[in-house]
Amino acid sequence: MNKKAVVFTLLSLSLAALLLLVYGWTYEKGWEEAYDAEALRVQALGSLILDIEDFILLTLQTGTKSTLAAMTRHVESEGYLSPSTPEEAFQDCFLHAEIDGVACVHEQNTTMQHWMDLLVNQTNKSTGALLQYTIHNVTIRQEYPFLVDVIANITITLQDPAASWTFTKEYPVTVSIQGRTDPALQHVFGVRRAIAEKTPPPGGTWSYTQLQEMYAEGSYRERLNKSPSYLGRFAGNFSPSYCCGIETVLPSTLPISDKPSRSFTDHQIYTDAYYACGDQVYAITGFSDPDFQLDREHLVSFGVIPSLWSNSTCP
Description:
By secondary structure, the chain is of the alpha+beta class. It folds into two domains: 3-175, no CATH class; 183-311, no CATH class. Helices cover 41% and strands 19% of the residues. It has helices spanning 3-23, 31-78, 86-96, 112-127, 183-189, 208-217, 230-234, 266-270, 296-301, and strands at 98-99, 102-103, 130-144, 147-159, 164-176, 221-222, 246-247, 281-284, 293-295, 309-311. The strands form four sheets. The protein has a three-stranded antiparallel β-sheet with strand order 3-4-5. The radius of gyration is 26 Å and the shape is elongated. It starts with a helix and ends with a strand. The model is unreliable at 16-31 (pLDDT under 50).
């Protein structure tokens, strides 16, 4: 049983326990007992509302991951997002399963609506109360390199002879992008690389050893004001992000044009950043990939000592 199914099963068991408690009372013992039974049902329904709100947060996280995956597949097949921004595309894909009129395909049984519909059916069937929901809008933003913040504006209605509730709230979740496929790398080279953060070293000073590990792992590091954000990559926006910049390094085996004049960081390749061959980019003596090279700034940022810099072989 997958994690989402476990969550739903646990909620169902919780609801069932409440219902057994409520329906264990009888309305045949006079008005005082009947009043107590009705009050208990109202209390149980109030607890149900709290369970529903917890469930909303879980399904919003699931729906966010499903939508980001669908957006990545969209970029793979259709190219970078345009004219929609990543934020606009996220809402359209989340709510309507399309981006700029093109289908945005979710994996089966992964959307928030799927799980909310199951909850509605379960609640209505088990309790006799009528549960309804409406998702009005969903927004996404980034304030940190490896996280996205999502807010859904939702109206919940629960109607019952004992009591009724109708309210509209904003539900916020924070979702890690780790494990998400890099949409730009997928689009440019057809490479599915899951984003994994390379933990910054104590004091923030990167080392040659960590460069070697990043290369071997395909991991990413925070690079504020130097590199593009995760969301920006969906639109081919590789301008430096002050809050959310991340970067990785690429192997020389990829079909990179004019290799002797290139620095093999992902966003520099995407933006066609060229250097003077044999002067501004250098291979690294003893590196596992002998044709791998970086520009001076990146070599310094990784603490590669100048004695290991080796001039590239120019054509």
